[in-house]
Design a protein that fits this description.
78% helix; two-stranded antiparallel sheet
Length: 175
């Protein structure tokens, strides 16, 4: 019987404090917190609701857009540039980039990035264009011409052509 009486006393105390507006009950998790007018949820529930809201794709996109607009302002760019030019900031950034954890993280990111199909396609296209431009240079054409005129290079090419010819001839005969 004593247990119920103690519990009843606690409930009465809580009800009294609620009526005096010293504490209030959270709507979502049923915990008590200090009374603040028009506040219905505790700080923890408010944080979790906000995190959940910020995970929605349209909200994420909106937040990113606003942050980008802010960073693109000339005065913000100037302030960030000045900050990054400070010697202590430069040193801190250099030291951070020298840590093994950072290097491993960068390696993993680069591996993931360069294995993306769109990045592979773009890099192949750039490499082909660069190679084409390189081969069109007059000095490169001249060097290649001189190289191909060497007797050992001519002999190697002839040998490869003979081998290819005989290999193809053999394949045709087998068919």
């Amino acid at each position: 019987m004593e247990f119920f009486e103690e519990e009843d006393e606690e409930i009465k105390q809580l009800m009294l404090r609620i009526s005096r507006k010293e504490i209030t009950l959270c709507d979502s998790c049923d915990t008590f917190f200090d009374y603040i007018p028009q506040k219905t949820t505790c700080d923890e529930c408010k944080k979790t609701r906000r995190r959940k809201y910020e995970q929605r794709p349209e909200v994420k996109e909106h937040i990113r857009k606003r942050a980008r607009e802010y960073r693109q302002r000339p005065e913000v760019k100037e302030r960030r540039r000045e900050y990054r030019q400070r010697p202590e900031v430069k040193e801190r950034e250099y030291n951070r980039k020298q840590t093994p954890e950072y290097k491993v993280q960068q390696r993993e990111y680069q591996r993931e990035y360069y294995n993306r199909p769109e990045v592979k396609k773009r890099r192949r296209k750039q490499q082909r264009e660069h190679a084409r431009e390189y081969r069109q240079r007059p000095e490169v054409k001249e060097r290649r011409r001189e190289y191909e005129q060497r007797p050992e290079v001519k002999e190697r090419r002839r040998k490869q052509q003979r081998e290819r010819y005989h290999r193809l001839k053999k394949l045709r005969e087998e068919e």
